[in-house]
Amino acid sequence: MAAAIVGDDVYGDDPTVNALEANVADLLGKEAALFVTSGTQSNLCALMAHCGRGDEYIAGENAHSFKYEAGGAAVLGSIQPQTVRMHDDGSLDLEHMRSVVKPNDHHFARTKLLCLENTHEGKAQTVAQMHEAADVGRSLDLSMHLDGARLWNAAAATGDDIAAFAEPFDTVSVCLSKGLGAPMGSVLVGSEALILEAHKWRKMLGGALRQAGLVAAAGQFAIDHNRTRLVEDHANAAVLAKGLSQIDGVTIRGQNTNMVFAQLPIKDDGAFVTKMLRQDIRVVAKNGLSRMVTHIDITRADVDDAITAIADALR
User: Fold this and answer.
1) Domains in the chain, ordered, with CATH?
2) Distance separating alpha carbons of residues 159 and 175, to the nearest angstrom
3) Per-residue pLDDT tens for 205-246?
């Protein structure tokens, strides 16, 4: 990062940003890319590039773009969300999706976009599932966006090339700051025309940065060096889930890729979190359910320490 050659990305002349964008576009098999500050901003720029005021996008009922992004598409883009049931594996109920697409009638919002997510709660959908959903979307004359914040994990889990996941989508968002370990940033890829439109929305949303090559360099390093090691996070999550399952009263609700969902036998979430902090371990819990995520800074020894600390706190 300290050695990065920088320019002014607002004017498109930061060479490190330009190189990152070109590289990610090439990796995902798309024409162009846009470096943005976060996955939420990336999804919002994509939604606003695809849809106009009064249009509608379809997303899963628990999808991040619908549930955890502060309603940005509705508030800032006047884009109506339409939710669809999700299966246990994180995929959409495609028959339900067919039924909610609005007819071309002035009474209704215009259904323009299908927004999928991979992974969802750590569950990696296959390339075949991505293509199946995209085929249905295309048959309904919808554009396609993929929230691939953890798409690197999906590719690591299945062994497929990341471009194979991206192929049926018009736009794809990928995150640099989750499993890959960069300090910040996501990249939106798509056609030249869609990325040009998203670029305008990024400016309006305050996401244009000046010497952004400093953080783009970190993102490029993460892509070059940290993709292959994601399987270590998946293995650590599996060890964490197994260890927690052996503690009396703990139920593992799910373990997929680098995520563990554990139901803990606690009545006071705050008291449990405080106990863990005393052991220098930060956890979250809501009604006893804790989502734990392994990443580049979590070692196998850390996992063992966490299992021991949780067992001690529950006693």
Assistant:
1) 9-225 (3.40.640.10), 230-314 (3.90.1150.10)
2) 19
3) 999 999 999 999 999 999 999 999 999 999 999 999 999 999
- Strand 32-36 and strand 251-256: the pairing is unpaired
Q: Which residue has the tokens 């190189």?
A: 19
Cβ atoms of 28 and 192 within 8 Å: the answer is: no
Provide, rounded to the nearest whole percent, the portion of the chain with pLDDT above 70. 100
Three-state DSSP class for 252? strand
- Which residues make beta-bridge pairs with 292? 260
3-state SS assignment for residue 259: strand
Ramachandran bin of 181, using left for φ above 0, alpha for ψ from -120 to 50, beta for the remaining angles: left
| Alpha carbons 16 and 201: distance in angstroms, whole number | 22
- Give every CB contact of residue 206 below 8 A, 6+ residues apart in sequence: none
Q: Does residue 222 sit in helix, strand or coil?
A: helix
- The one-letter code for the residue type at 38 is S
Cβ proximity of 173 and 41 under 8 Å: no
**Distance of alpha carbon 188 from the chain centroid:** 12
For residue range 286-312, list pLDDT tens digits in order. Answer: 999 999 999 999 999 999 999 999 999
Helices 213-226 and 15-27, packing angle to 10 deg: 30
Above 90 in pLDDT, residue 179?
A: no
Q: Cα-atom radius of gyration of the chain, to the nearest Å?
A: 20
